[in-house]
Design brief:
The chain is α/β, with parallel strands linked by helices. It has two domains: 89 residues, Urease, subunit C, domain 1 (Roll); 249 residues, Alpha-Beta Barrel (TIM Barrel). 33% of the residues lie in helices and 22% in strands. Strands 1, 2, 3, 4, 5, 17, 18 and 19 form an eight-stranded mixed β-sheet that branches. A four-stranded parallel β-sheet has the order 11-14-15-16. The relative contact order is 0.15.
């Protein structure tokens, strides 16, 4: 073999050796493994706590949960001791507005009409972080209130780990009857951009489809609003219009949430096939029995409804009728991160603490069609887990003392 051929062979062999050491595809880091050791565990459903349980997390999911004798942790597991705490599923906020901030700071009208979209998104970024750090790992955000489709972008930012925040289900602009919503107070000759999307009649089909196309996970409609004589609440859409909204949304696999506080608005929304009614302040025993019959859940937003005797009576009537109660606070009206006040209000209004905890975990997950992913502690479910100091089944205010937050196996607040 001549010298030129020998050099060619040597170069080829060297190249093959080098190429053999180059990865052929993206190399994945080994999934992180954690063994969480709290004092007690609320699994999202059981009436009693599990004393001495541990939870094994691998990657983004729960691998095992049970006694230390039953759960065998691998050598590489990072053990996190949590003495004095209760571990529970990440809490779910069923009714939020991340693009609003407390009305005590700026009125709803002025937030819609005077605050720049960029300012509102910047605020919302902080709101999402505060919500997550408060132990709420999933939210259903029920309307951008004049901020267009900004909720879709915020959801993407969280999913892409650009900003920290809870999982988001979004509705975009919400739907209102023409002339019923706000901002108000402007001369009638001015056409002012509204805090939700106006539509009527057959045009509702186009609007629902358009919102779905722009990223809506749910559809929200205002079945009534404060536009009656003298500023009282009154129904907005007819039963036929509400059915158009529901049927159009359902054909794409979406559910509908209805703002409703009058008995007639609630009745029409229920008969139309919505899946949740928000607020329900004026609900009667008859309306709640109808909701129970049709499987419609109530998201009572007690935190925003005021501690009135009428609201207490309405909530009691819902419980007596056996209506499914989904936890949701209307946060945005008050400060984000203060979401636990809704569970405190539910207990104050007569619900047992463990039922309030179920409402914000397994029940909310079922209402939001996410029961196969979260809301409980069990093998295969997403590792959305929080630890609070104390026992919230005995004192619901323990939810104020969040010591640990994990979402999808990633630790956001370290014990």
């Amino acid at each position: 073999m001549n010298t030129r051929c020998l050099w060619f062979v040597l170069i080829c062999c060297a190249a093959v050796s080098v190429w053999a050491q180059i990865p052929t595809g993206p190399q994945q880091e080994p999934a992180a493994v954690y063994l969480l050791k709290p004092t007690r565990v609320f699994d999202g459903e059981s009436a009693s706590l599990h004393q001495g349980w541990v939870v094994l997390v691998r990657g983004e999911r729960i691998q095992a949960a049970g006694t230390a004798a039953d759960v065998k942790a691998p050598a590489e597991a990072k053990v996190i001791e949590m003495p004095g705490t209760t571990l529970l599923p990440g809490l779910i906020e069923g009714h939020s507005h991340v693009l609003l901030h407390p009305y005590s700071e700026t009125s709803w009208n002025d937030q819609n009409a005077l605050e720049a979209l960029s300012l509102r998104v910047a605020r919302a970024t902080n709101h999402l972080r505060s919500t997550l750090m408060a132990g709420f790992t999933t939210i259903r955000d029920l309307g951008t209130e004049g901020a267009g489709y900004a909720d879709v972008g915020l959801k993407q930012a969280v999913e892409q780990s650009i900003i920290p925040g809870p999982r988001m289900l979004v509705v975009t602009r919400a739907i209102v009857a023409t002339g019923s919503y706000g901002p108000k107070g402007f001369a009638p000759e001015w056409r002012v951009p509204q805090g939700a999307e106006e539509a009527d009649g057959e045009n509702l089909i186009r609007v629902v489809r358009d919102q779905i196309g722009k990223g809506a996970d749910w559809i929200k409609v205002y079945a009534d609003y404060v536009w009656g004589p003298g500023g009282i609440a009154a129904p907005t859409f007819s039963l036929e219009e509400l059915k158009l909204i529901v049927d159009t949304a359902k054909s794409s696999g979406r559910a509908v949430a209805a703002h409703a506080s009058t008995p007639e608005g609630m009745r029409r929304a229920t008969l139309a096939g919505v899946e949740t009614i928000e607020h329900g302040n004026g609900g009667t025993p008859e309306v709640f029995r109808l909701m129970k019959e049709h499987g419609v859940a109530l998201c009572p937003t007690l935190s925003a409804g005021g501690n009135s005797e009428a609201k207490r009576a309405s909530f009691r009537a819902a419980l007596d009728a056996g209506v499914t109660v989904a936890s949701g606070s209307d946060v945005g009206v008050f400060a984000h991160g203060d979401n636990a006040r809704e569970l405190e209000a539910m207990v104050n209004f007569g619900m047992a603490p463990v039922d309030a905890l179920r409402s914000a975990t397994s029940i909310d997950a079922r209402v939001l069609h996410m029961e196969n992913q979260l809301g409980r502690i069990g093998p295969g479910l997403l590792a959305d887990l929080i630890a609070v100091e104390g026992d919230p089944t005995q004192n619901i205010t323990a939810l104020r003392r969040v010591r640990f937050v994990m979402k999808g196996g990633t630790v956001f607040k370290q014990f």
